[in-house]
Write a structure and sequence with these properties.
The structure is a homodimer. Chain A is of the alpha+beta class. The first copy, chain A, is built from 8 helices and 5 strands; from the N terminus they run αααβααβαβαβαβ. At the A-B interface, helix 2, helix 3, strand 1, helix 6 and strand 4 of A face helix 2, helix 3, strand 1, helix 6 and strand 4 of B.
Chain lengths: 204, 204
């Protein structure tokens, strides 16, 4: 439960401004050992997600999940595209993130249902990082199949999947994934902020 | 730059599982003192956003911002709906969060462009919280006007606004907002997680 930079992150990531080490420590390892997680290990991640901000505090996110060796495990594994399945089947828990597209109080469209679910996901990822777990978000799965197999209601959108598990040495991975098993970099700050308005740079 | 619960949060928020204090300390105050922020005070928040995870590490989020007493300030204030303008005009910085809907490498739809921007926003909010700033997300503004006035390209979606500023006592607020000036609560955990699949409970 560290509040200082991990060695692997310190080597790979440079910042121009001091930020909380927890934020920089979060990255997306793939190597997991296939062990299960107890509820005491898993639930704090959902608890962290729970405290995310949302428009009108509507909290429209819903995390559908399966632990290893439960009835739904194979269903979740089978949602993954092959590239992700190769490593993510070693997870302890697989999660499908969904969010309700309409406010519950009036069934009007919620402009930020996906954006807000992203905030909850980041809290989950940070709490997992704090606990030394692998927490890896994925777009590489069959969205329509997820809707069908998990009976996701029409009013909800399927947004992403998450693999959660205990870390293993990178040597546990298929060889082509081993060289990617380190914290990645980011664009320069000036590519993601715009003072004033678009147009001074061509951003189309 | 605390790593323990603030007094106001300790009084208002209870969790079933231990989570990082930074996550619980984040809430959305409205009372700000109208002072400016220097780049050294502001940029760490964008730096934190920069390190968020995203699908294919595409980082499609773009934060368009105006500081007080810059040319674009009035334009940003005028985007806000009246209820938000009443307090948010005391901010030091207003931000319009946008995200590119297509990957840059192939112009194919990016399924998680809004979701990923939400992760970046949460990092920004947490870093601001760590620094004792007000960081308040808003849906209450004119999305179409934002697109028009800030020349947001067709390929980008306008997602949310953010007010950032230095905190003031709640007595600085209009009286009807003073009673809301405390950390809010959340749904129970079992309303946002679903083991297995939808359907065991009616969630339509």
């Amino acid at each position: 439960m560290n509040d200082s930079l991990t060695e692997e992150v310190r080597k790979q990531r440079k910042t121009n401004y001091d930020i909380h080490p927890l934020i920089l420590n979060r990255w997306s390892p793939r190597s997991m050992n296939g062990e299960e997680l107890s509820d005491d290990e898993l639930m704090p991640l959902f608890e962290a997600a729970r405290w995310a901000p949302s428009s009108y505090n509507a909290q429209l996110w819903r995390f559908v999940y399966a632990k290893r060796q439960t009835k739904f495990w194979d269903t979740f594994v089978d949602l993954l595209l092959e590239g992700n399945r190769a490593w993510a089947q070693q997870a302890a828990v697989l999660v499908v993130v969904t969010s309700r597209k309409l406010f519950e109080r009036n069934d009007k469209p919620a402009a930020t249902y996906a954006f807000d679910a992203g905030t909850a996901w980041e809290n989950l990822a940070l709490e997992g990082t704090r606990r030394g777990l692998v927490v890896h978000g994925m777009q590489g799965f069959d969205y329509e199949k997820a809707r069908r197999e998990l009976y996701v209601p029409e009013n909800y959108e399927v947004l992403a999947m998450i693999a959660i598990g205990k870390r293993a040495p990178k040597e546990s991975l298929p060889s082509h994934l081993q060289e990617m098993e380190c914290p990645n970099d980011r664009r320069p700050l000036d590519e993601i902020i715009v003072a004033g308005c678009f147009g001074s740079k061509d951003r189309s």
